[in-house]
């Protein structure tokens, strides 16, 4: 009996203690909501996330301040409150805090709620300013909405209104690590997806405070540059592309993965099997020790074989150098020498067409047909069909690949001189692939028409690695100008994505039937400026509107893109602006500076374009002198003239090399060229070839004015006086008008194999036409 009473007494004591704790918790929740909520959230957040602060010394310890930060997920506000050393009062959309519990949470941190009406907005701004005067930290997400693509969106002017009449610092921040979480819009949806990591590493980058009068575009630039710093420092998180390709091909299984115009069709597992066999044969029969031969030359068109050889080199952890087969043997041999290439992998059929004389051992893939041993075949079957992906990755040593290991050497187009070997790392290309995944959102339902050569950085990064790792099928053809074959392939395989240049699209308009492109959903163009009329013409004929992107070989190559209309998930903010080349991809920052003194230009002001981010090349192979000229403090000097508008869209207005200084004024070649092209464009009823480049503006030295414009044009009925009159009517100043004797008719305009204008060839041709002796000197020095 005594024992029973003791038990009952113990229970009453326990219940009393629980009751006291409950009363205490309720009292705390009522009397000190902030402490209560923080006490609840801290252990939960610490369980799900690890946190790190970079630049904490930049955060004011006392006094008022405005915090501006990127907005990638629903949890960003709570996470910032958890990570910041001081409490911050957020100004947020009150529509997200309708329920009583949500309002309680908002009140716990003195959150300033703002409804979508003028009076409420005015009250919120007034409360924010008062908070700053009272020494509070006021935080705002200037984008006004969660990003749907990972890109930093335009900043709204509300932050400048809060600062009006105050004298407090603006603290830029970037929260890294939440894109890809359940609470972000990665994979095209919130919440309903598997988290990428069980416990995410979050890093809050705090930048140097800006003055209270900093313009909105400078605030955005500061946040974006912190984002670039974050992605550069965290580049080891980038997926290892060879591992990704193993998983993608295994996932594709017996379904077709790749096809080409020679009739070859292979499934995902057969691609993996053949590539594994090819790798073993190359290692045994051809390749030297990796230390003696780290770089291997590849001379193949975009094809199933070209894909397999490039992936085999990645499995072998060698650097692939896809060589430009549109140049001469002399140029090729200079590339081979600069990269230290000892072997060039190619095919009999291709060499018979090209007739190159190379200073390297030429290895013909056809010679390997009878060299696959039984052991090679068994290994291929085991790797492709039996081993799990993680086992195969370990056996191949792919987990040992470091983010800064070289994946490829891509030679520049040579449009301005001798090609340079651009060294691109695994992280460089991987960043581009992830950017394509986020923006264009390629998946297993897509069929990508691979017409860009793999020696072109766009073709290598996108139509090879992005296509093979993100799930689409790849359909390849070696000649992008062969419109009839391109149309047949698109129709046969129901292509959904086309990547090309405006020059290529012009040819397709005339030679491809609308039904052949009926399945097209995305068309992205780059390499040259898209003429305004081509948007309308292409959409009218094929029912899909192209979008422009921008990049250079040195930037792996993509910098920015307009989101294709059919892939857009934008709400509240636009994600494309026709005439621009889009917003920079996540992790990439664009800065526009004065070519004369390097001072930063404001929104909408033209200047020299600089880019930084994890996509910036490692350098030019063997040319540290040239590398140091274009890479300064982590920024790549593109040589392009551009501006960034107030919405964050990048506009390319010319190249530094495509401006002439005439009489002390900068004259843009492209502006003159565009107006001349409009006058020379053939009529729709004409049987002419409207895909051919008809006019080019270049320049030669001039003793009186510094330079003189020269116009190279195809035969036309219009004489120079008509063309000059048309330029005047278009509003061009007299300084922009080429002289009457500066117009030369030529059989063809110099064009590179990639479809881009050959700037050096055009200049040399102009010199030949005006002064043959000077042209010979230029060629000798080049």
TrEMBL record:
Signal sequence, start to end: none
Keywords: Membrane, Transmembrane, Transmembrane helix
Residue stretches spanning the membrane: 12-32
Keyword Nucleus included in the entry's annotation: no
Domain Phospholipid/glycerol acyltransferase residues, every copy: 65-178
UniProt xrefs under InterPro entries: AMP-bd_C_sf, AMP-binding_CS, AMP-dep_synth/lig_dom, ANL_N_sf, ATP-dep_AMP-bd_enzyme, Plipid/glycerol_acylTrfase
A UniProt-annotated Pfam family: AMP-binding
A GO molecular function held by the record: acyltransferase activity
Gene3D superfamilies linked: 3.30.300.30, N-terminal domain of ligase-like
Region: Disordered, residue numbers: 588-607
UniProt key word RNA-binding: no
Protein name: Bifunctional protein Aas
């Amino acid at each position: 009996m005594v024992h029973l009473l003791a038990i009952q007494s113990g229970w009453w004591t326990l219940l009393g203690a629980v009751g006291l704790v409950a009363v205490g918790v309720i009292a705390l929740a009522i009397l000190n909501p902030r402490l209560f909520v923080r006490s609840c959230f801290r252990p939960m957040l610490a369980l799900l996330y690890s946190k790190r602060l970079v630049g904490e010394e930049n955060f004011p310890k006392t006094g008022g301040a405005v915090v501006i930060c990127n907005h990638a997920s629903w949890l960003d506000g709570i996470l910032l409150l958890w990570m910041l050393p001081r409490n911050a009062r957020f100004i947020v959309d009150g529509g997200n805090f309708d329920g009583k519990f949500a309002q309680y949470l908002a009140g716990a941190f003195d959150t300033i709620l703002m409804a979508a009406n003028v009076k409420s907005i005015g009250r919120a701004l007034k409360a924010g300013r008062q908070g700053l005067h009272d020494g509070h930290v006021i935080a705002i997400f200037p984008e006004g909405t969660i990003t749907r693509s990972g890109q930093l969106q335009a900043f709204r002017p509300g932050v400048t209104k809060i600062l009006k009449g105050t004298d407090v610092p603006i603290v830029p921040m970037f929260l890294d690590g939440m894109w890809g979480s359940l609470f972000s819009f990665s994979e095209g949806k919130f919440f309903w997806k598997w988290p990428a990591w069980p416990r995410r590493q979050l890093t809050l980058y705090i930048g140097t405070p800006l003055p209270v009068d900093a313009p909105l575009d400078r605030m955005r630039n500061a946040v974006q540059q912190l984002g670039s710093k974050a992605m550069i420092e965290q580049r080891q998180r980038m997926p290892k592309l060879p591992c990704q390709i193993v998983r993608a091909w295994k996932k594709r299984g017996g379904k077709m993965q790749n096809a080409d115009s020679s009739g070859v069709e292979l499934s995902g597992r057969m691609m993996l099997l053949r590539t594994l066999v090819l790798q073993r044969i190359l290692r045994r029969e051809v390749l030297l020790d990796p230390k003696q031969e780290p770089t291997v030359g590849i001379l193949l068109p975009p094809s199933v074989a070209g894909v397999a050889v490039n992936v085999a080199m990645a499995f072998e952890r060698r650097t692939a150098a896809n060589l430009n087969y549109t140049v001469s043997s002399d140029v090729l041999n200079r590339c081979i020498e600069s990269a230290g290439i000892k072997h060039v992998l190619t095919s009999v059929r291709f060499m018979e067409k090209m007739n190159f004389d190379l200073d390297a051992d030429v290895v013909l893939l056809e010679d390997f047909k009878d060299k696959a041993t039984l052991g090679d075949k068994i290994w291929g079957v085991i790797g492709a069909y039996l081993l799990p992906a993680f086992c195969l990755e370990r056996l191949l040593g792919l987990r040992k690949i470091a983010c800064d290991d070289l994946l490829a050497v891509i030679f520049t187009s040579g449009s301005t001189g001798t090609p340079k070997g651009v060294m691109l790392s695994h992280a460089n290309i991987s960043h581009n692939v992830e950017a394509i995944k986020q923006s264009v959102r390629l998946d297993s339902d897509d069929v990508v028409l691979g017409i860009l050569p793999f020696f072109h950085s766009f073709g290598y990064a996108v139509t090879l690695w992005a296509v093979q790792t993100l799930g689409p099928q790849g359909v390849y053809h070696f000649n992008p100008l062969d419109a009839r074959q391109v149309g047949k392939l698109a129709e046969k395989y129901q292509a959904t994505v086309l990547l090309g240049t405006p020059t290529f699209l012009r040819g397709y308009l005339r030679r491809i039937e609308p039904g052949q492109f009926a399945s097209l959903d995305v068309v992205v163009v780059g390499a040259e400026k898209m003429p305004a009329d081509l948007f309308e013409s292409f959409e009218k004929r094929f029912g899909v509107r192209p979008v422009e992107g921008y990049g250079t070989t040195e930037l792996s190559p993509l910098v920015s893109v307009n989101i294709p209309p059919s892939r857009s998930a934008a709400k509240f903010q636009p994600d494309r602006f026709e005439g621009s080349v889009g917003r920079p991809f996540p992790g990439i920052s664009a800065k526009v500076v004065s070519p004369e003194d390097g001072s930063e230009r404001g929104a909408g002001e033209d200047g020299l374009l600089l880019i930084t981010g994890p996509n910036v090349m490692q350098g030019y192979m063997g040319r540290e002198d040239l590398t140091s000229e274009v890479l300064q403090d982590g920024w790549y000097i593109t040589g392009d003239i551009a501006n960034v508008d107030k919405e964050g869209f990048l506009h390319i207005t010319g190249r530094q090399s495509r401006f002439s200084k005439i009489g002390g004024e900068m004259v843009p070649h492209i502006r003159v060229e565009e107006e001349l092209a409009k006058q020379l464009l053939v009529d729709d009823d004409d049987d002419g070839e409207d895909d051919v480049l008809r006019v080019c503006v270049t320049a030669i030295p001039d003793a009186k004015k510094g330079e003189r414009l020269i116009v190279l044009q195809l035969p036309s009925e219009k004489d120079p006086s008509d063309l000059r009159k048309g330029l005047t009517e278009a509003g061009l100043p007299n300084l922009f008008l080429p002289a009457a004797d500066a117009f030369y008719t030529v059989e063809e305009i110099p064009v590179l194999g990639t479809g881009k204008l050959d700037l050096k060839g055009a200049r040399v041709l102009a010199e030949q036409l005006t002064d043959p002796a000077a042209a010979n000197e230029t060629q000798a020095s080049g």
